[in-house]
Amino acid sequence: MGRNILIVESNNDKYFFQSVIKHMNLDISISAPIFLDEDCRVMDGSDKDKLTKALKDLKADIQKEDIDRVGIILDIDRHSEADRIKFINDYLIKVFPEATPLDRVNQFIELNFDDYQIQLACYFTNVDGKGELETVLKAIKSQDSTHADCLERWRECLISNSKQITDKNFDKLWVVNYIRYDTSTKDDKKDAAKKLTLNYALENKSFIWNLDHPILAELKVFFRLFNDLSL
User: Fold this and answer.
1) Per-domain residue ranges for the chain?
2) Three state DSSP letters for 9-58
3) Taxonomically, which superkingdom (predicted)?
4) Using an 8 Å Cβ cutoff, are 32 and 22 in contact?
5) What is the torsional sign of CA 38, 35, 120, 79?
6) 3-131+212-225 has which fold?
7) Can you tell me the distance from the alpha carbon of 95 to that of 58, in angstroms, rounded to the nearest whole number?
């Protein structure tokens, strides 16, 4: 068996998905993680240039390494699933002209070129068809979130004064407050620059998220694809 490669948008995504994968390994008795650290590629965003570069880098790596399966995970944001799939296909075909286009999430397509035979699938981070990583984290919090939840009053105050904050920015702010005020320890606060960050919380404090939450069910279906030898 060759390696499985996961292409994601950011380090925050990387740390969260690795936490879910490790959790699944315990639950479904997988002997080793599906993705190792070096098998998670970070795009630092999801614009067309970064996706194209990630795909070109992947093509070069396929010719140098033993790679079997590839996954691409993007935030769905406010796009439809069909639009997100089209976005990937538009640049996938430019880099891999013979690839079978994606037509749904959680299903492999053939990514063949020359003598290489690779499978690729995609998934879009979302809650009820919209949002991004922070939207998911807000929904699956496992600890008391009084400080973060009180931001709703602040948001109401903004609205009453004809000011706005987008759902995306509000969710990011909610997660920051949840980490900094609701779930931090005295030890965390002594090294705030390091330990009161989302990266640190995702990598070292996964217990503050409910990794068994039903919202993660479809994501887990996606990850199980990479361990299914029948596909």
Assistant:
1) 3-131+212-225, 141-208
2) CCHHHHHHHHHHHHHHHHHCCCCCCCCCHHHEEECCCCCHHHHHHHHHHH
3) Bacteria
4) no
5) negative
6) Rossmann fold (3.40.50)
7) 10
